[in-house]
Specification:
This protein has about 160 residues and is α+β, with helices and mostly antiparallel strands. About 40% of the residues lie in helices and about 20% in strands. Strand 1 and strand 2 form a beta hairpin.
């Protein structure tokens, strides 16, 4: 046997070993994160729900999803344990003083500031466009005298 023929098999086995090792490392980190949960910690479930830990058991966790609303979840359903600042920022909308800045640009609610300047907005024609349906008598006098058009299902044959 030649070493060149064994090389692809050796590379394949090495790649499989590295992939299983990294996956095992991720699983251990997730298990350690779940074991470090304490009551009062903010978490995010794998479904994206934010809650506060009330009790920690062997395989289950009691979560407070809303004030006075409790639910029991499996420990494996915890996606991330959040620190207090991040949890309060996401759930309650509070920000640190460092993040608030008076120099931050003001973002408008609409795209009008992206397309027009103040002078162009004042000079623009703000007349209303009539999108309503008009009667045929209003359009033209010839149209009122004309024979009505035939629609599907009607034929000229008698």
């Amino acid at each position: 046997m030649n070493i060149v023929t064994l090389l692809p098999f050796i590379v394949l086995i090495g790649a499989m070993f590295l992939m299983t090792r990294s996956a095992k490392r991720k699983q251990q980190a997730a298990a350690q994160m779940r074991n470090e949960m304490t009551p009062g910690t903010g978490i995010r479930t794998i479904g994206g729900m934010y809650a506060t830990v009330k009790e920690v058991h062997d395989d289950a966790v009691l979560l407070e999803v809303a004030p006075g609303v409790h639910a029991v979840y499996a420990k494996n359903s915890i996606g991330a344990v959040l620190d207090d600042d991040e949890y309060n920022r996401i759930v309650h909308g509070t920000e640190d003083d460092d993040l608030k800045s008076d120099d931050a640009p003001v973002v408008p609610d609409d795209a009008s500031s992206l397309t027009e300047t103040d002078e162009a907005a004042d000079a623009s024609d703000d007349s209303r466009i009539d999108l309503g349906k008009r009667d045929t008598a209003d359009e033209a006098p010839e149209a009122a005298d004309a024979e009505p058009k035939k629609t599907d299902g009607e034929s000229g044959a008698k």
